[in-house]
Amino acid sequence: MAKPKIVVAYSGGLDTSVMVRWLIEHYDAEIITFTGNLGQQKELIGVEEKAIATGASKAIIEDLTEDFVVNFCFPALRAGALYEGVYPMATSLGRPVLAKRLAEIAIREGATYAAHGCTGKGNDQVRFETTVGALAPGVVSLAPLRAWEFKSREEEIEYAKLHNIPVKASKENPYSIDENIWGTSIECGILEDPWAAPPEDAYTRTSSVADAPDEPTTIELRFEAGLPVSLDGETLAPVELVAKLNELGGMHGVGRLDLVENRLVGIKSREIYEAPGATILHLAHKELERITLDKPVMDLSAHLSQQYANLVYNGLWFSPLKAGLDAFFAKTQRVVTGEVRIQLFKGQATALGRKADHSLYDESLATYTAADQFDHTAAEGFIKIFSLPLKTVHRVQGNPLAD
Ligand code: ARG
């Protein structure tokens, strides 16, 4: 009988390398590794050779950066989705792209199982398994890190040596890092103490305020229908645009975040993030919304942005609610077209100006000069009717604030 096939979401790091061998031993299986590039700075050189040397029969490597930015990051940006109001969700958005391809490859290869290298107490295991479960219902998810006997990195290294698995002799990084073009997530080590300030060496792609240039950089971003299309007048493809903003923002130390967050699995955890491009884009997008959206849409959007962020964070990318929210934002963001001028300086991105093709800001109504067109006399009647219910309450029931 043919051996069962397992497609493994493979990074080439210690955990997933040990995992390949461990799965061969425990499932007597044929292993196919899948590595997705989401625009991380770390090159994927040698990953294929390493997978094969570790025992895989086939190693698949694909560049998913464009799919990631266009179909995952940008819709989340248009929806203003920031988890707990601040985290642009580089990791949370990256998982469904990887899991989607993992599911597709598992189906194509006729695999029985799809395995990932997430631990048993994080959000990422949920994101992988909800997505694989939805898109490839016949494929069983495996999470060896939840099941295996190793209790430390040392034990894994020992196992790797025993089985001639190539492990890099590099000094152990005290942090757990997940990186892609939308941002970097950094946890563990000293960061587990929420009182401890993040050490400078934990950051990998942003300058400290002290090292940031003494001269600001001012940029102009154009959005069309809620999506960014150009930088300083130059039309750029989505991946290029984000890469350029990462570079500029990173140089000025923009996009650092230190966050204690609520995990889906019920615990609070502390993580730091670097997302220069995403931070600039969210700021610019919000500024443009302020002059293009009317108040009822703005108010509901704020609520739905939070819903959107929660479902992305909770691994429900491929859900009906996500589809419905996208429809809402696609419709209401059609007017979010225009430009925002942003200054990058000493760790801060600041909006300096905004203009829109269909701006709701009317200077002739807003001005306090002689050019004012606002009908001041109409205010009297407006207030009379607006205050009528409140006056009625006080007259009939008294002051609701009184004891
Ligand atoms: N807390 C973030 C999230 O759930 C990132 C998790 C992965 N972090 C890491 N350093 N590997 O989206």
| Count of individual helical segments | 14
The proportion of strand residues reads 15-25%
H/E element string? EHEHEHHEHEHHEEEEEHEEHHHEEHHH
Q: C-alpha Rg, in Å?
A: 25 Å
Could you state the oligomeric state of the chains shown? Answer: single chain
Biggest pleated sheet: 5 strands, parallel
Category from helices, strands and their pairing: alpha/beta
**Count of strand segments:** 14
How does this model look, in words?
The radius of gyration is 25 Å and the shape is elongated. It has 403 residues and is α/β, with parallel strands linked by helices. The protein contains 14 helices and 14 strands. β13 (338-345) and β14 form a beta hairpin. The strands form three sheets. Strands 3-2-1-4-5 form a five-stranded parallel β-sheet, with helices on both faces. The structure holds arginine. Arginine is lined by residues 89, 91-92, 122-124, 176-178, 185-187, 271. Residues 89, 91-92, 122-124, 176-178, 185-187, 271 line the site of arginine.
Give a brief outline of the structure.
The chain has 403 residues and is of the alpha/beta class.
Layout of strands and helices, then pairs:
Layout: E1 5-9, H1 14-27, E2 30-37, H2 47-54, E3 58-63, H3 65-78, H4 90-109, E4 113-115, H5 124-135, E5 140-142, H6 144-147, H7 153-162, E6 176-180, E7 183-187, E8 217-224, E9 227-231, E10 234-235, H8 238-251, E11 256-262, E12 268-274, H9 276-292, H10 295-313, H11 320-332, E13 338-345, E14 348-356, H12 363-366, H13 378-386, H14 388-397
Parallel strand pairs: 1-2, 1-4, 2-3, 4-5
Antiparallel strand pairs: 6-7, 7-12, 8-9, 8-13, 9-10, 11-12, 13-14
Bound molecules: arginine.
